[in-house]
Amino acid sequence: MKHGSFVFLAGLLLLVANASASTPGFEQAYTTAKSDELSLQGQDAKNLHDAESQAVLNAVVACKPNHPVGGAQVTFVIVAQLDEAGVAVRTWRDGDSDMATCFDRHISGTQFFVPPHVPFYVFIGMHA
User: Fold this and answer.
1) What are the two backbone dihedrals, phi and then psi, of residue 80, each rounded to the nearest 5 degrees?
2) Considering the chain, what is the average pLDDT of its residues?
3) Does some domain include residue 35?
4) Which of 48, 19, 18, 16 is nearest to 114 (CA)?
5) 17 belongs to a structural domain
6) How far apart are CA 35 and CA 78, in angstroms?
7) In sequence order, what DSSP letters do the residues of 18-85 get, joined into one string?
8) pTM score, two decimals?
9) CA terminus-to-terminus distance, the chain
10) Which of 1, 80, 95, 109 could form a disulfide with 100 if both were Cys (CB 3.0 to 4.6 A apart)?
11) Domain residues for 63?
């Protein structure tokens, strides 16, 4: 292997390692979301609550007719990372039901509220 190829490959591996180290997994994102949500007070807390309620309602309307759960128990958590405009730009999901997957698709891209800092994480937990 030529020296230039080796240096390029080593640099590429380092770039990939740094990118994956800075990307949180579900548990880290969920822990951060709980902390971020608990830090809100006053109007920010109300705005987030209202936005989450609307996001859940929209997802239920879109997902329930297509993925009826019948008597089955459905439990999942969706965590979303918000950008500076409050749009969910990344999501993580704990739960693999059709309903969870549908919710995840509908939460992604949803505008919640303008967060006090970025990244800001929120979560929606469902138990039905």
Assistant:
1) -125, 140
2) 85
3) yes
4) 48
5) no
6) 15
7) HHHHHS--HHHHHHHHHHHHHH--HHHHHHHHHHHHHHHHHHHHHHTTTS--TT---EEEEEEEE-TT
8) 0.79
9) 58
10) 95
11) 24-127
Number of folded domains that form the chain:
1
Residue 104 to residue 88: CA distance in whole angstroms: 10
Lowest mean pLDDT among 6-20, 39-53, 75-89: 6-20
**11 is written with which tokens?**
């640099």
Q: Which H/E stretch holds residue 107? A: helix 98-107
Closest residue by Cα to residue 96 from 81, 111, 112, 74: 74
Task: Identify which of 49, 55, 54 has the alpha carbon closest to the alpha carbon of residue 104.
Answer: 55
- Whole-number Å distance between alpha carbons of 100 and 43: 29
